[in-house]
From TrEMBL:
Source organism (scientific name): Beutenbergia cavernae (strain ATCC BAA-8 / DSM 12333 / CCUG 43141 / JCM 11478 / NBRC 16432 / NCIMB 13614 / HKI 0122)
Stretches assigned to the Sugar-binding domain: 69-312
Top-level division of the source organism's lineage: Bacteria
Name this polypeptide is given: Transcriptional regulator, DeoR family
Gene Ontology MF terms in the entry: carbohydrate binding; DNA binding
Transcription among keywords: yes
Family listed: Belongs to the SorC transcriptional regulatory family.
Listed InterPro entries: NagB/RpiA_transferase-like (IPR037171), SorC_transcr_regulators (IPR051054), Sugar-bd_dom_put (IPR007324), WH-like_DNA-bd_sf (IPR036388)
């Protein structure tokens, strides 16, 4: 007869051994599976059980001091699933801290095997080093083309970093976020890699994006479309999310500007469970209000001054 208590003790010892390799040793789940002659799914189950039973207890230290009161007020005011508000700071450091806080939030909401969409959001591209938090095995999918900036990393590099951390997989493509013409946009959208990524968007469980105002200096997309941005304004554009111009009701504004942006319509992603916006700059608060009140986003990571502007 098998001693039940002995079997339980061995299972807990294996949980602890696997957890030490994963959390302290920095091994991926695939590496642990190979080293211990276990299936990857067995390793994942052991890590889940270790957290559930208290073998592993995780304390999350979010970059910057999280303001619980403002976070809770934002959640209630905009009926958000989650809000994370950190302290203000110099813009270059603030962007990286917001991106890092978003990764911590990812660790809390992403489940094993899910698809996570990543856009070319400035805050995410400003990350210098990923926070030391556990991320489950998942697939990262590039949602937008490459942001037209030279002062940040690129979305493919970020996805590769995240993929290495989780041991998961990636779906990426090479295209700019803003095409030089409609013909160029059609060419990019016809590329097999772009079509393959876009085909997976309705499978996403989590996405991270930015939100901008449809105004000079408040949206990189607006600033890079001088020949067609006024057309979008006349059609009702007041903000942009995922790089796509949206109106006061959170709907995609179609037209020449839309046909230059390598990204999906916002409606395509409305079924995604966690739609996280990482936002900064109180001058964009009205744009964030539009996105939040119309359900384009349902979680926010931001700084104190922006939270206060949103609550004013």
């Amino acid at each position: 007869m098998v001693d039940a208590s002995g079997s339980h003790a061995r299972e807990r010892a294996l949980m602890a051994h696997v957890a030490r390799r994963y959390y302290h040793g920095g091994r991926s789940k695939s590496e642990i599976a190979d080293e211990l002659f276990l299936s990857r799914f067995k390793v994942a189950r052991l890590l889940d059980a270790a957290r559930r039973t208290g073998v592993v207890q995780i304390t999350i230290d979010v970059p910057g001091d999280v303001n619980d009161n403002l976070s809770r007020e934002l959640e209630e005011a905009y009926q958000l699933r989650r809000a994370v508000v950190i302290d203000d700071g110099a813009e270059d450091q603030l962007l990286a801290r917001l991106g890092e806080a978003a990764v911590v939030l990812l660790s809390e909401v992403v489940r094993e095997g899910e698809l996570v969409g990543i856009t070319s959001a400035r805050t995410m591209l400003a990350i210098h080093e990923l926070p030391q938090v556990p991320l489950p095995l998942c697939t990262f999918v590039q949602i937008t083309g490459e942001l037209p900036r030279t002062d940040a990393s690129n979305v493919i590099s970020l996805i590769r970093i995240l993929t290495r951390r989780t041991g998961g997989s990636a779906q990426v493509f090479f295209a700019p976020m803003v095409a030089s013409s409609e013909d160029a946009w059609r060419s990019y959208m016809a590329q097999p890699e772009v079509r393959a990524a876009f085909a997976r968007f309705r499978e996403l469980s989590v996405l991270i994006t930015g939100v901008g105002a449809w105004a000079p200096g408040r949206s990189i997309i607006y600033d890079h479309l001088p020949d067609v941005r006024d057309d979008a304004t006349r059609a009702g554009a007041v903000a942009e999310a995922l790089g796509i111009p949206i109106d006061a009701h959170g709907r995609t504004v179609h037209g020449p500007a839309r046909r230059r942006i390598v990204a999906p319509d916002v409606e395509t992603l409305m079924g995604t469970r966690e739609r996280i916006a990482v936002v900064f700059d109180p001058a964009r608060a009205d744009a964030v209000r539009v996105a939040a009140r119309n359900g384009v986003i349902n979680s926010i990571v931001t700084q104190r001054s922006n939270a206060e502007a949103l609550l004013a």
